[in-house]
Amino acid sequence: MRHLTFNAIRADQSKTHTVVSIAATAKDILTFAAIERIGRDEEGNLSGFQRPQIATHIREIRDYLEKPDAILPNPIVVAFTKGVKVTDVNGATCRIKIDLSEGPLGLVVDGQQRLTALSQLENKDFKVFVSIVICRDEAELRRQFVLINNTRPLPKSLIYELLPGVENLPTRLEGRSIAAELTDRLNHGSYSLKGKIHQHTNPSGFISDTAIQKVIMNSLNDGILRDLLRVEGGRDAGLKIISEFYEAVKATFPEDWWDHTPRTSRLVHGAGIGSLGYVMEVLAALDGARTWRQFAKGMECLQGRTAWTRGHWDFGGGDVRHWKAIQNVSRDVTTLAQYLLRIVRADIRARRSKGSDPAPLLEAMTG
């Protein structure tokens, strides 16, 4: 059986994990570990962990490592779920045997850019420290990846995309995990936003995944999703509402939606997506909107009073801004949302005065 053997040092940390450190060349590391890029199969199932390589970053590391006095004390972190045997020798010292019969069984959890740069060196004898973590299963491996990299300068959107497959998250990430899961479903299921949300696994999308997640998180905290998720089937019902709403947005502002990017239209910009999320809440809760036609009816009052792609926003009190001046910052999103909500609420009051009664949210969804 093919295998590699290393002298190692064991670190007593978690009782549920084995953590050891070795010194190895890039060639040896790539013999027992792989860099698995994040991606999705044809059914939309998530696999892998790592972001795409950053060529400039790798080149900078390689150029530095080519210097005769270069050092790289930062370890490469590799996780295994099987194929590693640890034999104690004396105290903290041990020997590990890594099975190679099935190919690389380890996954690089941290240090992919450094490892790639190392593999390009002419000096193939340059060794680095490798921290090896032995996890009980794939789910635990994924959890360790998220927790390790959440404190590093890794793209937050990549971390968020991985969250739905991770259990026992810190409290601060639980709400984001639900939002990320629903965003995934909106982007890969039969919904109006399918394929339109930009993710690491869907770079062709033009709507920011974090913008949609913020809409969902606001709703989870103090909106329609907060109540819906407490009833059976509420998650699906909530997704349906969000999908119907953005279908109505497309129908209400077609010239500002189609063939646009956040640079050319503030409708598909984080500011537009975020501010319209509050409009969705008001129309669903106060106007009883459920279908895209009902949402579209509630937004008819906004037609001719927006500046998504041209002109100026007149927010009142002398606050007039060019459409490009609206940015995806809390202050601008709040100002834009308040402007839109004033118009929508006034329209609801006007229609109510004519005898239109809204349907209660939960009764309509569960009745």
From TrEMBL:
Name of a matching Pfam family: DndB
InterPro entries: DGQHR-contain_dom, DNA_S_mod_DndB
Name the record gives this protein: DGQHR domain-containing protein
